[in-house]
Fold:
Amino acid sequence: MNSTEIMGFAASILIGVSLGLIGGGGSILTLPVLVYLLNISPVISTAYSLFIVGTTSLVGSASFMRKKLVNYRAAMVFAIPSFTTVFLTRKYLVPAIPDPLFNVSGFEISKNVGIMVFFALIMLAASYSMIKSKKEEKEENTGELKFNYPMIALEGGLVGILTGIVGAGGGFLIIPALVLFARLPMKMAVGTSLLIIAAKSLIGFLGDLSNIHVDWNFLLPFTALSVVGIFLGTYLSKFISGEKLKKSFGWFVLVMGIYIITKEVFFK
Structure:
């Protein structure tokens, strides 16, 4: 195992730490680690990302369930359209994407480059969501929760498509949707988000099983390290301000997004 591969496996722990600390961001790290440090093709990496982030989020959501910080009704309304779109996207849409995507006057964009650039644009959107200052959400929520069912379901479907194309869990989209449309307190939104990410990511991965060969000898140890990371992240969350960490992580994601676009478009 060379130094780059060692760095890749070490980074798997950071994927779990991110999920444990801020309830998202794991997939933002996973795809670049798999592609650039471990030299796995973007299409295979998006599939592996679904399994890694899904399994890690499932383990992380267990502690929120024990504390009764998961709203199952909101999860179901969001998850059903999300399950459907992520499975269909991985099963039919991703294999149908042409390679190359287009060729204009000798300028060619391959399927792999297209996926990475699209992922980088998602990273830029995620970084804005994490960097912009927000007023702290009140943890208490007196009165009955009011659900905007159509908007929750619509965003669920859109996040499912996004997850299917780039292997991103979409926590940076799910958490605001749960806070705005389901009026959940922030901690409950994080716990509910982890459960949604877990379920839809693993269902999306099932859509890949007939399309790719899975190297379980690599995938299971990598995922196990990520699971270790989420336990570490959950422990550290007791001592670290989530809002400050989220903003710092947002700047890191912004730099990574710019790096990926620059590398894929100008230095390929």
In short: The longest strand covers residues 102-104. The chain is about 75% helix and 0% strand. The beta strands are 102-104, 107-109.
